[in-house]
Each structure stands twice: as C-alpha cells, then as structure tokens.
Amino acid sequence: NEISYVMVKPDGVQRGLVGEIIGRFERKGFKLRALKLYSTPKEVAEEHYKDLSSKPFYKDLVQYILSGPVVAMVWEGDGVVASARKLIGATNPLASEPGTIRGDLAIEVGRNVIHGSDSPDNGERETALWFPEGLVKWDQTLEPWLKE
Ligand code: GTP
Ligand code: MG
After folding, report:
1. I need a labelling partner for 57 at 20 to 30 A (CA). Which of 1, 82, 145, 146 fits?
2. Which amino acids does the record list as binding ATP (predicted)?
C-alpha cells in the first residue's frame, strides 16, 4: 500500500498549525499510520535532505528543520503521494494555489510549513528514516464509506 511521509516543519508547529494541517489529511480520508512530535536528530535532517546537499540553501534548510520540534507522520492510501503534494501546494508559497496548505498558510519558500514525499519510493525511504520503530497497524472502520 502506498504511503507518504508528511511533516509539519518547525514553523508550522510554532505557529499552532498542527491541528489545521492534520485535519486536512484526516478529512480527505487517508489513513494515518504513524504520528509523533519529534526533536529531529541532526543526522536525520541531513539524510532527509541529502539530495539537496549541493544547493546554496542546504545549510539554512537543515538549520530550519532543526530549529524546533516537527510533527512527523505517515499517511496511507491509493495515490496518497501525489494527492498529498496537491494538498500541500507548490514549493514556493506565493505560487501555491489558494486552498492548498502552503497557498493558505505561508509566504516564503524557507518557511513553507510542511513537507510531503515526492514519489512512492521516497515515501518508503523517508518513512524508514523517520519511523525506524515501524508503523501502527489498525482497521479504519469507516473504509466502506470512503471506498467503493
Ligand atoms: P518538501 O516537501 O519540503 O521536500 O518541499 P518540495 O518537495 O516542495 O521542495 P524541494 O524538495 O525541492 O525542497 C525541499 C525544501 O527546501 C523546500 O520545501 C523548502 O523548504 C526548501 N527550499 C527549496 N528551494 C529553496 C530555495 O530556493 N531557498 C530556500 N531558502 N529554501 C528552499
Ligand atoms: Mg521535496
């Protein structure tokens, strides 16, 4: 089953947007498989963003992610990776559509409140990185009301 690693970044936590953001995924109907408020270890932040390590903003990006606790979560569902990216909106919040999380709640790329995996493979890779303890298995009993 497809999973996406989604994370409320430190600015989202500080600004009190955790409930608002989780609510959007919850109401959409995806299944929550893991959730924690997390003080990110430096090695995890660096590994998470290693593909961007050659970028000029990499140091600031890692510093941003380490600037306070994050809310780490894993959501499951058919097409969840692409759908989460749509809910989140474009990387630059000024270019994000209104109605998306970044479009509604952020103004700068360096403070864009949320992360979502960009491919199913990265969903798996990032989940293993942030939740080595594993996911929670449970039955979503309203499934017949969400899926034909
Ligand atoms: P994530 O879901 O966080 O991975 O964002 P994304 O997939 O929309 O963008 P990308 O993976 O390319 O970049 C990861 C993060 O790096 C972004 O969410 C931004 O926080 C940050 N970032 C990307 N481009 C820039 C930039 O030009 N300047 C700064 N300061 N930060 C950037
Ligand atoms: Mg990305």
Report:
1. 82
2. 9, 57, 85, 91, 102, 112
